[in-house]
Amino acid sequence: MFQFISCGQNTYYLRCFSNIGVYDLGNGEAVLIDSGDHKKSVSDLDKALVERGLKVKMILNTHGHVDHIHGNRFFKEKYGCPVYAPQIEQYFVEESAVEPTYYYNGIPTNRARNFFFRPLGTACRRLTPDVLPAGFEMLPLPGHSHNMHGFKTPDDVWFLADAVVDRLTFEEYKLPAFMDVNKSIETLRMLETLKGAFFVPSHSAATADIAPLARYNAEMLEQRKAFFRTLCTGKSFEDIFIAACEQLPMTMDLDKYAKISTTVRCFLQSLLEDGTVTARIEGFVPRYYPVQ
Ligand SMILES: [Zn+2]
Fold first, then answer.
1. Which residue segment(s) compose the domain that 236 sits in?
2. Of 131, 162, 193, which closes a domain?
């Protein structure tokens, strides 16, 4: 049975692939922070809410990635509740073609559109601080996606979305998705000093001290950047990609290629932005060189 895990007087979360935050407003209504990663977590959440006699008043999406928005349509239709997401992220929530576009480099085919069993988009309002329930705060967490935000409930509990991943994710996936690596590192350094009673990342267990995990994530991203710089010896993107897969090492399939190749391009972008790597067109494709 899907159970609420308490992390504050009125703050709970449901542990699943992408944790869902639940804040009990005390009047039979609840605020959801994200809404589930697939159909099963949505139906489990629905049952747990009904069991507690809670109706959904509003959904706050941290960002528009597919594994955070599955229940939007279901709860919106059931309760008529509004769905909010930060600027830019709202387009990912509303239109199911947007996220696959950056993995598949073009208008996605039906197959690409169904990547991760993506649900239909849901009408979504832009999230601004004035729509938050009393005592809530929002915090920009850029890097993993365009404009991801975290939320603090009145119980001093922070929901931190995908700003950090756990050690196992780094060990298994080698290159978790960070779309802007340099901004992610800045966000992680900020999280090392963030004050709060409890912290709930989406893909990790909740903790009273987020600093060690934030530090680990920042160090891993710096380490991966240094690794990619060693591969920039006049190689093309494809050669860098192959070398990374061999050395990290990683297995590959077509959907994984779509995600990981995007992440590798983001690491190369971060090095170009730093000025520690440069790119030149040679033989019609960019080749990457270190800058001494
Ligand atoms: Zn995400």
1. 230-290
2. 162
